């Protein structure tokens, strides 16, 4: 399997970073989460003057065989139709990218449609849709490997373009189902608490989705290793995100984590390489059932709580101005000595 070299950033810089933050003209700790973010990004970048360069939101898209079982309110073709909307600039993620200066990249990981690649969509298609994991593994070992490699390749290209912060998003009707299965397998939280409305199921629909996913789990005969669970229940776009996140961490790129699906992707990535979590900033806690439970389980502290349940990277991008403030704080605030203010602590 593709390997990644992900290290915990060097601790040696931390005292100097803490010292710099504590000497800014404010009571110690009074800028709270902004101070934590500045420390984290300075630590990742190994500098006392961290920067944010060329932010990009990368949407990985694919279809899911399990959709045949009626687990989503939305029909499968919404995946490619929404991609077309992304290209025309009319989706939720588009106005947020425009507002916050993000470049938007769309990656076809496995959409069940012949997409027009001359529009700028990045062709990384591994196959058209996963198989239906009610009956068989969603993807083969080779397909999983291709997903990891291609996700990593997309991020290497962003790195070459100068990005040091990336947000990841997804589009794939049915992908809250894969997410719920990864969540229950990796956290041992009962499946019932991991299954929610996704793109809009009512209670009857959620019950049916739960029954299908429960049956899929009962039918599973794999070895329960992280690798096998990722492969068996994964979405092609979600495994590509894992490759992308791992490559980002290897390159020292800050990872902005979006909603329920992306939180599950970084959870799964951390089962392969635990150190990936040092590079993650959790953008928000959304309304999809299980998201808060999962964040709590991971001891993650999301920046926002806006009741979002869309995906596409929207919640991560909404949180970006807070990250920008943290970077301005550490670079632009004066210190006690220079400002001639008596330091009383
Ligand atoms: C128009 C539309 C736009 C979306 N953008 C993101 N999603 C979100 O909904 C899907 C997951 O929900 P489920 O598992 O219930 O299918 C994903 O595509 C996710 O990105 C959308 C869903 C719809 C309908
Ligand atoms: O939080 C998410 O990522 C999410 C929730 C519902 C539907 N699509 C995405």
Task: Give a concise summary.
It is built from 14 helices and six strands.
Biggest sheet character: 6 strands, parallel
Distance between the termini: 52 Å
CATH topology: Rossmann fold
- State the fourth-level CATH superfamily: Nicotinate-nucleotide-dimethylbenzimidazole phosphoribosyltransferase (CobT), large domain
Gross morphology: globular
Q: Numbering strands along the chain, what is their spatial order in the largest sheet?
A: 3-2-1-4-5-6
The whole-number mean of residue pLDDT values reads 98
The percent of residues in helical segments reads 40-55%
* Ligand identities: alpha-ribazole-5'-phosphate, nicotinic acid
Helix count from the secondary structure assignment:
14
The CATH architecture would be 3-Layer(aba) Sandwich
Give the CATH class.
Alpha Beta
Tell me the number of structural domains.
1
Helix and strand element order: HHEHHEEHEHHHHEHEHHHH
Structural class: alpha/beta
Radius of gyration: 20 Å
Q: Stretches where pLDDT falls below 50 for ≥5 residues? A: none
What proportion of the residues form beta strands (DSSP E)?
Answer: 5-15%
- The total count of strands amounts to 6
